[in-house]
Design a protein that fits this description.
This protein has 538 residues and is of the alpha+beta class. It is 46% helix and 23% strand.
Length: 538
Amino acid sequence: MEEFGDEPLYVLESKKKCFESDMDPNEIIKLKVIMSKLELANKRKKYEEILQVVNYFSKKLLNSLKDTPILIGVSDEKGFLLDMTGDESIQSTLNQLGIKVGAQFTHEDMGTNVVSLTLQQNHPVQLIGTNHYHTSLHNIACYGVPFHYTDVNHLLGVIGIMTGIAHHTPLILLTLSTVVDGIERELLLKKQNRKLNILNQIMLSKTRNAIIITNTDGKVIEFNEFAEKIFGFKKEEIVGRSINDLTITGDFLKNILFSGKVYENIEMKFENNNNEKCVCLFDTQPIYDENSKVIGAFGQFRDITERYLAEEKYKNTEKEMSRLDRLNLIGQMAAGIGHEVRNPMTTVRGYLQLLGSKGEFAKYNGQFSLMIDELDRANSIITEFLSLAKDRVVDLKVQSLKEIVQNIFPLIQADGLISDKYIHMELEEVEEIPLDKKEIHQLILNLVLNGSQAMPSGGVVQISTFMDKEEIVLSVKDSGTGITPEVLRKIGTPFLTTKENGTGLGLAVCYSIAARHNAKIDIETGSKGTTFFVRFKR
């Protein structure tokens, strides 16, 4: 055993075990444990990422040692050889010894070998020539370095180099150790990136917020599933595009990238690519690297459309109730004084007619007619006031809204011709519902008159009936210049009028009639005209 005296203790102990187990050093090595093709395929699949990294660094190592015939092998933590690359002549020699991919290096089968010792010692090992127990390996120099997941010190296996003894140099083990350091760093980075990717996927896919992420150049690199729903674009349509193309968020993201500015709770109202109205709260902030340099921008949209619409509906309902209460109050006041006022008015009107018929007052006929007209106008205003009363009795009968429009149309059309306006009908069949015919007549007349007065000569008013899901709809559309926002906010309020001689009660009466029929009035207005939609429930 003296020839082993200058060898490392672990090599000496390995050879001693071989000697004590009566292992013949001149016997040809025969590896007994070899994986099946399926087992090898499954193992290589498990080590796929590791083998890719090792293969990348192996090519660099082979290139740096291109003047030295070497073979690089990779084993797992149990000594199974998973891959070999490099000099074909060395690989052929190993194949003759039964050493091939899928075989397991063990001390019992192979005696003193670099793979088993490296796994056992968990540090770099080299076996040069006679350091091997078997004489068949005395012409070979072997080097092994263990590699790990360094964050948990988990041993993954051995990366080894084999070459002819004539090419041995301590620099090979040093170079291999340096390469393994690079491999371990790359494996750790990939592992960390994999965890980050998993966390990112969970965050991006599970969050109920729309997320947009850009790189430092302002290119979109992430657009999650919820962002697709909010904006109506597919991920592939947005990723890779510049923030200059994003009209909704472009300026905000630019400010982040160039100045690091942070935005919180910016309310945004927009119409998405599917023509759906959306309301979101927008938060955004810069993304920094470890040196506090801005490398991207993160934008998050919290969809509050439903909440916003609910609040708007509540505000509108509250506003409508307040307006109806005012209408009802006026109606009650009118009902309280209407009869008392009408009685003396009727008396005065009668005497005016009587006096006007007498010959001695013939020269005052014009004045009598004017006074009678004014009394009639005052009487019509009282009638409109009475129409505002919420508790006014209505005669509801199940009938067709379309037929009511058709019956009153000749009267409306005649009035339109007198004022040089055109009245058109576009009536679809609708379900019959309980209606007070007289009140609906008044509703239609008021809406058509309102639309007609908003147009110049030659204008067109279109009356339509149609079904909209669960609602029966009457619409009156004019071709005027639209209603200003200021007037639109107050529309339906008594005495609100833009006409010189108007009372401001016509639309107020329409809202009261709609309320008594459990209907609502919606308005769409613009520079090309206004449409009133009266929506009756089925």
